[in-house]
User: Fold these one by one.
Assistant:
Number 1:
Amino acid sequence: MISEKIKQLLKRPMLVIMIFFLPLIGTIISSSFLAKVQSDSKIPVALVDQDHSNMSKQVMDRLQKTTEIQFLSLNEEQARKELAKNKIDSIFMFPNGFQQEVEEGNYQGVIDLLTLPSSVATEAVREVVASEVTRLTTNVKAANEVRFLYKVYNIHAGPDLWKEAYRYTDNQWKPKPLMTIDYEAQGTKHTKQGNVQMTGYVPLWGFFTLLLCCITSDWMIKERRHLFKRMKTMQKGLYGYIRSVSAAYAVLYVLQALISFALFKWLYGVESYGVLLYMCIYVIVCVAFSTWLASESQRVGSYYMISVVMVTGLSIIGGSFFPVGELSATIERISQWLPQHLLLYQHALPLTFIWKEIAVSIACICLCAFKIVWNVRSIK
Amino acid sequence: MIEINNVSKTYGKKRSLANVTLTVESGEVIGLLGPNGAGKSTLLSILSTITAPSSGNVTIGGLSLKKNQKAIREVIGYVPQDIALWEELSVKENMKMWSKMTSRSLSNEQLQSLCSAVQLEGRWKEKVKNLSGGMKRKLNIAVSLIHEPSVLLMDEPTVGIDLQSKLEIIRYIKQLAAKGKTIIYITHDLNEILDVCHRFAVLKEGKLEFVGTMDQAKEKTGEEAEENVVYKLLHD
């Protein structure tokens, strides 16, 4: 029965395209869109180099490696125009004599700052810039001190003593100098792969898959009126039929998960097979959930509407679109009990069994199955 | 043999069947007549294991309906009033799907010959949605015969179709009866009753008002014309 149903489903080209490609296409388009929004949402800050020295260049290079803020290298006129148009948040200017001031060990007032009343990133950026200048002045001070001590104790020094001392001090800032700390939210682990954050596309795929499961579960409503009555008189019974059709869909969705995983691996370089395992468990939960939801509904139109609302709501709370911790701690606690949680954060981990999530998924499947049986029982 | 003893069915406060007692012999064709809402379809739903009776006992071929639902499903074939087919699938796919719902595994040839028996040869690969109403009705009957049941429960199998298809279906039902199938047949058409059934039963407001042959009905009502007999049975 399951194989017969799968054969039939595969003969419907639109359905095949929908099941196998719609979640994938949706995920790829949405994640690239989100990546674009993410990069566009970085706060733009202008850097103006009037000193054109090695040190000003070095600081600017380091700042531009910061991913959280978008540093733009502009000349003073351009920067002031952009600030006037409110297109940038603030201007950090390295004035003439910047390197000289730093070499003399001065770090107070060596950079000019231009802001607007609406500037939001000034404080944070000032900290970042200040730490970078502190790094430079510290390096310079240390190198000067070494050169001075060599002179005092009359030690023979090579021509590159100052540079070596500078480099040595600079290395003390590694491996985790202030500028390059990876800020991590509690309980999350962000690993950059390609252009998209790994936590982004698997939960998004989860959203599209759940939505599609709901759309393809409309058979439960369409067939109820004419077919279910006769099903009850057949040897395999109505439950047997529902079980078989659901299983056939589950097989197709597991296949879809496999294809999606392979493509994600190719596109984004997923490393953990834990993702695949939890994607497979997730699609089975989705099939059970959508079949239950359809068994509660009487009309296809209202079912689609309720499905979209429920899937979107669950996906928001479950963290498919953004980390729910940003909304509230209560929602974050709730999200841990939703099947969507299966798809969060697993990519970066080796294959580990997250028993709570697996138990929640099994409970969800059992609850849906029980409710489907209960709802179908009343069909006369 | 089907034995229905004191069967009642209530939905909330509404009583659909009230103490119905009826015996149908093997190989007999019995028609069920009655106005809409009389309880005909409810009785057929109980016999076909769709609904459980509120009280009373039913045995089919000596098997109790309460205890042997699965075994009873092996011997009954149910033809619902609605067309219970997948419109998007072909005749072949429908037959295969329904055969998978039975405990028997039938070959394509066997299924095809069943379709030929209801004059659907040449329609094997056609989608159900492209068939005429009469053809759909024929296929609806063919599906109920896949597992070769000895009892057929037919709920208005000829409703809403053209005369030619209706006559073909009636002829086929007569063939089935000749082969010894026990048939319970719901209809509103007196001619079908006279043509196909050995006996008929009249249900009114959930109660069995009459069971017997047309001659017995004439005797009971004192009417000669068959239309008047049935009218009197339904309205008195």
Number 2:
Amino acid sequence: MTIVENYFFELRNLTKNFGLTKVLNKIFLSFIEGDRVLIVGPNGSGKSTLIKILLGLLSKSSGEIMLEGKEVNRPPLFESSFLGHNSLLYAPLSVLENLKLLLRLRDGSEELNLILEEWSLLTQKNKLISELSKGNEWRAALAVVLNRTASFLYLDEPTTSLDQSGRELFLGNFNKIALNKKLTVIATHDVRGLAETINRVVVLKHGQVSKDIRGNFKEAQLSSLYLEACS
Amino acid sequence: MSELLLLLKKDFSIESRTKEVLVLILTMSLLLGTITAVGINSAFLSPGNLNLMFPTFLWLVFIFSSTLSISKSFEYEFRNDAIYGLLLSGTSSTKVYLSKLIANVVLSLIGQLVTFFVLVILANFTIPSILCELIIISALVALGFSAVSTILIPMSQTSKLKSMLLPLLLLPLLFPILFAGLELSAALFDSGKIDWGSSWISILLAFDVIYVALGVNLFEHVILD
């Protein structure tokens, strides 16, 4: 019996070069709805580049991207929510102005207040992003990213600038929100607390997929996979 | 439309807080205008010759001050990669382009007016009643200038050539509209009126339309890799 998977998003033989450097080399990845993928790998293995190509921020050098059965040059940005190495917030605007602009919320709306309260940003709401600590800037960035109504969620090192309480806040929200997304992809060196949500692990090494495992993972499994990938 | 207004509010809020482009354009216009006026005075130009030369000085100062100042207009779009956050929020790249374009037209027009008054005052130029017509010509040139520069500035941010790329590409592309602007303003200073049916007006309008249409279509490709 042949099992036919219902892939809605595929990368076929995808390669990405920056000048003469091959960052991604012959990547084959197929996603089904509800995939919650953890990408692990050592520095320079191509995790961030892969996420940016999935997102549509970077173009491929060669290969195919298939979305809903059709070949696309790049996936449409507006269907995705993303946080990478920068906060994607306007530095000269306040937290409140950024949230209103990027989440299309009205001043004083209940949703806006709930978000500010949840991310402990109520007292900081009128401060400019450039005046915030890195940790609070990151909270504001995560508040935007995790409250967007997008089908795809991509996170690249989302907990780097967070303290312990910020990390717990992120994990609580992430584990809840990722369940409702069509596809979630997270690349991180901090895999603690992700086991209950993740159902697939992709290991990248030297720009190639060296392992692709589906299943329910335990905390210890994720840790050992991470250590093995980065060794 | 409301989305475009939201983006314009964002652009002008950022400019009103940082004042980076405005201060730079005012400073450049004042300094270059003053230097040019001193040069004019030293040359002891006759009123007739001054009338002939005035538009050339005006547009020269415009090119330098606007090119240097407008290049700062994308500073906060690329800091924190904020422009990508905006595109991810579902905002169309066309509206992002149009809001930047409008903001840049307004700022370069302010620069042009400052230059005009600095030159008029310091070079003892007698103004004929042409201000309205001059503003219209300046607005049309500023539209073409901003349409091209709003595409080239993000390109120069990501290029290895960085700041060199903008003047290298901008000036050749601007040649038709600057030439039309110069011819129209020279005729205006000479006769005190514009022939609205002249071919220079058609050239200026045509290039404005072409550059804005190109900008709208190319902006997303320029912003993304």
Number 3:
Amino acid sequence: MLEREEVKKVAHLARLALTEDETDAFTGQLAQILDYVEQLNELDTDEVAPTAHAIDMRNVTRPDDLENYEHREDLLNAAPAREGDFIRVPKIL
Amino acid sequence: MTAAAPTKTPHETQYEAVIGLETHCQLSTNTKIFSNSSTEFGATPNTNIDPICMGLPGVLPVLNQKVLEYAVKLGLALNCQIAPYSKFDRKQYFYPDLPKNYQISQFDLPIAEHGWLEIELIDDDGNPQRKRIGVTRAHMEEDAGKLVHAGSDRLAGSTHSLVDYNRAGVPLLEIVSEPDIRSGREAAEYGQEIRRIVRYLGVCDGNMQEGSMRCDVNISIRPVGQEKFGTKVEIKNMNSFSAIARAIDYEIERQTQAIETGSETIVQETRLWDENLQCTKSMRSKEGSSDYRYFPEPDLTPLEVPAEQVQGWKAELPELPREKRHRYQEELGLSAYDTRVLTEDVDVTAYFDAALTAGADVKQAANWVMGDLTAYAKEQKLSFADLALTPETLAELIGLIADGTISGKIAKEVLPELLEKGGSAKELVESKGLIQISDEGELEAIIDKLLADNPDKVEQYRAGKTKLQGFFVGQVMKATSGRADPKLTNKLLVPKLKG
């Protein structure tokens, strides 16, 4: 069973600030989701190799050809804050 | 100054250091690992950016084929097994240098594993001391952006930070060593050997100042004979091999003192090397233990490099530094020291090998390359690949000395012009009339005249002042503008002087 503490930990790792009420609500909802997914454990997968990908494809690569992106300004302006050529972020620590 | 530098004190218990290195090499591709933006160093901030490296929603990263090729080649050069099945993973952490909030890296199935490289140190007697250092793994990943802390030159006092994402998505190969290293000197040599290998392969420029090669150190100490590892500390922020050696030596001393005197407790932490104060300092530890929650990257397909492809890349590998060292010492008979000098730079060693292929004598070629040619290249800030004097011409010049066409002295005289303009050595000495006089009759006539002009000196010589032979040789050289064959001159001169 999913504990409140686990929800708090996951929220912290995801940098989400949850109120006590939200924590309660999500603990219940997440527990339901996990129970639902839990059904998969009914299948015997001992003989099934683990997969890293949903689509059976391998070795997709592209050539090392330079192509500058044309809309640099749009990228910079899309950031929450900009300072000249830089993207500005709150101080760290 | 916060940390007092520990002074060396004798310790009763013998301790040994257990050291492993994590080396990040920036792969020399034109474009980023998962997008088509440039990897150029030093561009205006945020010019080499695109929706993929900026982590915009809905984009699809695709692996750069050149990154895979370079990673496999470097893995092979490090004697690794190339994974039959490899994949990328997401490593989650929150820091503004990473716009996606995760780094695409490789976790449990890296491209290369179980390798080794050989380091060679030279002992006080000039003998090579070789040691194998295990390579645990090498994996591909993307670099992060660069933060500038505004309002202060230090993180602690800054009011906000500015981010440049030009470096985000630049391809890296991270090489993790086994804890086989025991000293700062060995660690520095390990780093230098990796740099030689990547430069020989041409997969990374190995420039530590620009950060295209970065080494982090993991170090602990334990009493000699104890199997269990001590508490390990990570050291970062060294931008030269000598700084790596010094940081390690400092850390060994600090940890030994901590254990011996109980002055401090060694905790598992990251410490930064302070180049100004020449000491390591504790970095304020990150809150909580890291929990990267790796999971397979769904946007990239797994890799199964076909065996034929691996073999094809293997066939393209050049002779590697270790193979060169062994060949120079064991087949060419060069000293460990000369070998080290000649194999350090890939262009120098290629030049030297080409001169040998063109027929140059080993010792002569080594002396010219390490002496006059290196001095000239340094002075002119030229790579050996760009010297106007080709290795073939050097071989020709050495051949002219060997067959007596010119003396060593004349060779040194024509060298500056050859270095500057290139061309044929033989044609140059011929056009300048510098061909050595090896004609017995011609030399004899000169010597006879000299003896006749200096009867007093001949008398003194015959009275026992045999040192005067040098005077006569000098006069012959003067009379011939240095063109007289020195060996033949002596051979003809001595019987005449003795009378």
Number 4:
Amino acid sequence: MSWYLTLPLVIPFAAAITAYLMRRSHLGRWVSIIGSSLGLAASIALMIVVLDQGVVAGQMGNWPAPFGITLVADLLSAVMVLITAITGFAVAIYALGDITERQEELGYHALFQILLAGVTGAFLTGDLFNLYVWFEVMLIASFGLLILNGGKEQIDGGVKYVALNLISTILFLTGIGLLYGMTGTLNFADLALKVEGVENQGLLTVVAMMFMVAFGVKAAVFPLFFWLPAAYHTPSFAVSAVFAGLLTKVGVYALIRMFTMVFDHDIGFTHTVLLWVACFTMVIGVLGAAAQSDFRKILSFHIISQIGYMILGLALMTPLALMGAVFYLVHHIIVKANLFLIAGIAKRLTGGTEVYQIGGLYKSAPFLAILFLIPAFSLAGFPPLSGFWAKYIIVKATLDVEMWFVAFIALAVGLMTIYSMTKIWAEAFWKPHPKGIEPELKTLPNKAAQLIPVAGLAVLTIIIGLNPEPFVIFAERTTAQLLDPSPYIAAVLGVTP
Amino acid sequence: MNSIILIAGARLQVVLLLVFSAYMLLRGHNAPGGGFIGGLIAATGFVVYAIACGTEDARKALRFDPGSIAGAGLGIALFAGVMAVFWGDALFTGQWLFIGATEDSKGIPLSSVLIFDIGVYLVVLGAILSITFALEEAV
């Protein structure tokens, strides 16, 4: 196996161990930043290799597929690993100004790196049981991060988060057991070949639905999203940013992977369910956001509504729609993580996240206002930002298959998104602070560490927005790989085994 | 708890449990046992000691912070996995060294698998002890 497949996994683990052993000397933050930057370099290298050679696969411990654990990177995996590394790097820098010394002593940086390793592993693995293991790694690390040095509120959010995720895990494991009983394999590539030969196709659909529910909880789709708004507004901002950016997207990734490669035997049924789920998720998410007044709670509900768009892309299953889903996935991670980071800065400047009780940011911190406008408008789908292209492709795909009503919902939800963003804008930025505080960026402790990642992610949003062509072409290639898994299967199982 | 019988008994037990845990660790490759169960047994030894003599003494007897033991163990396990790269193999491929191997005997087989198991042993020992010590001290 080549180093480029393993390095994105080995580096965060090594960084986690080093940071943990150094936790009392507070050097962990630098270990975390160095680890994240090395991880970023490794995932760029992986991306270059995948772009150059197509799907690459490796067998851990030299056990041949489908018996051993396979690591495999196609374009979708590679881009998700890369975007994870970018988010991880940005948040690692941001943590300099956000994480308290007490949290560092308790091992924040180690948990953060293990979370990154878990997410990366979930994207890279080519084996269903191994995916379950990475989900567990993520769950353990994220639970630790949620309650780290927390009070009642954090424990409350954390317990809801873990309880609902455990239900998903149990379903996932049950589904794995049943699928293994039917096919005798858990390797994605091998499964893709063997599901066609399963006698009882009805039972296969049942198992497919179990996976849909299990991944649906992870992805926070309707009606399984309740853990998300209960937990995401409680931890420190760096933690919630990386959660908001990455955790639900692992669920979406798993859905895309399983429902394009393995469970495509009864698209008429499974993907119709997905279509309804997508519509409800979009609408409920955006309505939930309209009812909230806490900065992070509004954003949390928007994650849900945006997940709906990605599921919609998967549900339509046309090349254009899948391409939209991939584009959306990438755009959303950058924008959402950035908005949570900005919420953190806003809180430190104004003293709160309840938008009705803060204000004055536009007048006294105009730079932050601009930085907020970019991801917020991108999220709402304003041209020429990245969100516009993402929404445009999805809506175009629904119009192409003549689902007028679905297209109408997607557009209406976009409009509602603007409403919530306007609420944050008008309350937190435009109106004067009710207590007369003039929040200035000068007062921010460790200003550069907080503003640089925010600005960097905003620049990335603008680059995707102004120059979408290479990204669209890339998404097209990714989709082609998803719709025709034969190179993937060949890379994993070998042409001549 | 302050019972002389328990303290005297615990001292004996701790020794036996620690030796037995090392035995379990080493036999693990081909027979039931291994790093996980070995770590659990070793942790039991220190837990018995902590119940008899208090966590403060147990921490002293352990010498290292249990969290750091777990961290170091994870590092050793990772190292055992990465080691394979030096031989040009895939991650976590077992590397074997047969000391004094002849035609009909394999000599003393040493492997990176054992190093991995030692890492697991330390992770389990450290993790279990951090939890039990913290619980014991909170009560």
